[in-house]
Amino acid sequence: MMPVSGWLSVPGVLVVLLAAGVPVQAGLYSADEPLVSLAGSARSLLLGSSSSWLAEFYASWCGHCRNFKETWSALARDVQGNRQLHWRPAVYLCVLDCAEESNSETCSEFGITGYPSMKFFKAFAEKTSDGVRVSGYTVDSLRKQIIDRLEEQKESPPPACPPLEPISTPELDQFFENNSEEYLAVIFEENKMYMGREVALDMLQFEGISVRRVVKDQTDLIEKFKVSSFPTGFLFSKNGSVSRIDPGEETRSSYTNLLRSLPGVEIPLLCPLRLSANTGPKTEAAIVPLTSKVYMADLESALHYSLRVEVGRFHVLEGERLKALSNFVNVVRKYLPARPYLRTLLNSLYVWLRARTRTKVLFDDFEDVLNNKNMDQKAVLSSEENYVGCQGSKPEFRGFPCSLWTLFHMLTVQASEMATQRTVKPAPREVLSAMRGYVKYFFGCRECAEHFERMAQESLRTVRTLDEAIKWLWERHNRVNKRLAGAASEDPDFPKVQWPTPELCPLCQVKTESELVTWDDPNVMHFMKTHFSKDNIADAYLVDEDVLLEKQKKANEKRDKRDVTDQENKEEIKVNEDFSENTFDKKQEEGGKMSSVHKKEPKDRPRHKPTIIKMKPAVPLKQAVQEEILDLDSYGQGLFLSRSLQDSSLHKENRALHPKVLHEPQEADFDEAAVRSRLLKRGVDTQYLMGVVIENGDVNWKGRWVKMLEGGFSRLDISLCVLLYFLSSMCLFAMYLYMSLRKRCLRKRYLFPQA
User: Fold this and answer.
1) Active site residue: 65, 94, 448, 508, which one?
2) Angle 339-341-346 (CA atoms, 0-180°, nearest 5)?
3) Which sequence spans correspond to the domains of the chain?
4) pTM here?
5) Does 445 qualify as catalytic in the annotation?
């Protein structure tokens, strides 16, 4: 087995991970689990890494994610271990909580549209879109998919990954001649078995042994070692001995434990760099709300999260998804008793969406309207979550799902109340249809969305009145509470019970003669309309809208400055990329020595002109002369301690060498001071002459004067000037010929007048 250095290579940084894993951020997973947190470093870890990564993107409020947590934790313990690194650094398991707003942009960038989502990133992945979706809800199926993905990386596998393909007969015969291991364990198995590859990955961190597999199709080896049952293991020693492995049970763990107990087989001592644990956001002191009140803070938090985070997972909004968003905003603006600035924003947002329902809408444009970027009116929506009645005992409990239920209960009741007052005439299923569209196209917990869609298909069409809409949503909410009671997603301090409780509504539940508890529908309807009335909305814990407006103004200004800076950086990067297209050619003598180096410029790219500020070039000449280029090949040779990480640098001699100096020194007899003195009289700095190519030690005087005459103009400008001069000369010449001929004709007429 090749020794592993434990280094993880990522662009611009080398990270050494703890054997127990980097502590994960606060969320579903605890710090003692062997998982890596992607919070704040998803790009640097997943892209360009010499390891493969299997990432779970989840939302801490998602009930399905909480149910899946046990499977993911068990997989992490199985392939990542606690005391040993197990399959690391060939593959790492990591997590990211997309419910954290600081992570929402990252989740959107990686194309996460539902929770939980698992993606496998191969080694040296270049783009966020390189992640391949992985499906499976058992440890066994996920483990097998990891192996399948590792085997697919034939062109650029993780350097630390052991060989997973079957060993050939010549390779087996010459193994100890080409490797320094003391032992070779060979497991004979069926073609579709995974045990041989699993044991090979289990032993990845151990020195002194290598594990390979032989499949049933390799009849030559099967017959040679007289294998009749599968799996069967053989242990080859460097001293030439061959013995059959008897682990007691033909299982993965039995083979692994036996091989780890062999003399000389051990994990090398690692000195990992300890990374500081990110404990995540601190939980504020719990608020004690009144259960009899509905808090506007919860309703505004639901709107903020649904419009900025949930909708923000989609870069482009079109078709049915855009229509569902427009309908959602419409019912909220019509029936939510919002504060004045929020009502103005919702009306503007709906008008903007309605004008674009048949086109494609970029979320960035939608977000600009949502953030009132132009600030042409007093309109604002809080940019933070602030749960009061929906606050859970921990950040991952309740929160957004609770506030979304509250919002839609409020909308169904207010639609009915406004119809009673004859303010509007809403359709009976208007609010429920908008809720159905939002949950179907935007709600992150996809299993939850599918459950709600099934309930809607089953009975939503039976709703005929606005009061029936109130009752339908209440009944479905209680059905969901009953199904999820006692589940992992339940907050122990707020158990899922049938609502309203007897404490809230003593008359809503009645006992029959058989002691069965039933609902009293008239009293339930009265309670719903009272509880979700305008008068029962509490404004406690709200931030004043003028304060929010000022905060939004500052955020927009900061965002504008950042956008300008980003644009400038993009332009600068583009210029640098164009400049880096310059290549250096080399000419070698028979002895292989470099004889001359000159700069070659692509013909299809315009020449870069020196900066004309203070008549100085962008980079001082002396600094440019001294600039050296780092030879990455020789640098990498000493960086990676493992043989497997050095393989890519073995072909160094076949690559083009980079010159160490950008410019050759000036010739000794060139009198720079004299030339500078003459040029200064003409207002031209001599440093314009220093970028001219020096060929074979001779000064290219023609090139120097051409460079001086250009004066900062491009060659296209000079070509146009020459063309214009030529055309002007030809025009003058034509006029001269015309006048000469005309003069001759006039003279003939004068000398020889006609009779």
Assistant:
1) 65
2) 90
3) 7-152, 169-260, 294-538, 612-648+655-710
4) 0.63
5) no
